[in-house]
Amino acid sequence: xxxxxxxxxxxxxxxxxxxxxRSRIGKYRIEKKLAQGGFATxxxxxxxxxxxxxxxxxxxxxxxxxxxxxxxxxxxxxIAKLEHPNILGLKDASFIDGRFVIVSRLGAQTLAARxxxxxxxxxxxxxxxxxxxxVAYAHRNRIIHCDIKPExxxxxxxxxxxxxxxxxxxxxxxxxxxxxxxxxxxTVGYMAPEQAMGRPSAKSDVFAIGVIAYRILSGILxxxxxxWPSKGLATLxxxxxxxxxxxxxxxxxxxxxxxxxxxxALLRAYLPAKRKTLRMRPQSHRA
Length: 287
Prior knowledge:
The protein is of the alpha+beta class.
């Protein structure tokens, strides 16, 4: 009950600072609010100088502290070095009209929105491969994401998937007191068990990838305690090869020691399993 009260208070404070459509902040004209979470509010805006649409992520006033800004700036310098077709880079991260604003390219939609509709098998496998490629590249650069979820996966108009919010989750976790409230069914989302206890690693990112991949392919979000077989396994068996199912099972194992070491190890296992699935997929799943 206390956690719910704190969450309600935080939401009221955040709501009081919401920007209205057509208002301006620097060179950006706000068009609409896209999302609001415990860390920030995200807007769609028009860059009046460059003539392009962008996404503006604005951390809530009550959590923008000197220590948070210092930590985020360190993370931003690392993120700026990540140049990969499946990673959404930052356009800017600075104070504009007295508010800290994180600016990035605007995608067509999030994967969360896309998953509200049917996804063909070939497309689903492509999304998963692109996600693994992005995280594998980050892991090769000794960066873990810590907040991989469909809302942080942007789909561009050309069908490319890009992972966003690198570093932001880690900064938020260090500067905000989080209370996790499980749903009635026990779902804890895409966070690995050890990360929920404050011990994230590259294997935690592997877990999140596995959960997302399982949901994309089966339509079911695995739940705590992640016992196998999970719900939706029958659907998976009709769509993909056993090798790919084994990869998903290993990726979402609640014990880190039994998962892939990092996304690069996962990618090496995934690519041949994906190719075999596409070669042998049933006619009904050739979309």
